[in-house]
Specification:
mainly alpha, two-stranded antiparallel sheet, 2 helices, 2 strands
């Protein structure tokens, strides 16, 4: 039997939405969810891209 290694833990500042359906999220107004939506929208408006090289990811603009 092949046993998979455990998934790595990824730390994030985003709220976990695993316990909600999309329908429930439409009516959920917690401060954590509001902040998460703000962060995601900011990242969509100003995406970062790794342009290659050995340095950290930079902005593509």
């Amino acid at each position: 039997m092949l046993i998979s290694p455990p998934a790595p833990v990824v730390e994030t500042q985003m709220a976990s939405l695993t316990e909600y359906t999309l329908r429930e999220l439409r009516f959920h107004n917690s401060p954590a969810l509001t902040e998460t939506v703000r962060i995601v929208l900011r990242q969509v408006e100003h995406p970062s891209a790794n342009l290659g090289g050995s340095g950290p990811p930079g902005h593509s603009d």
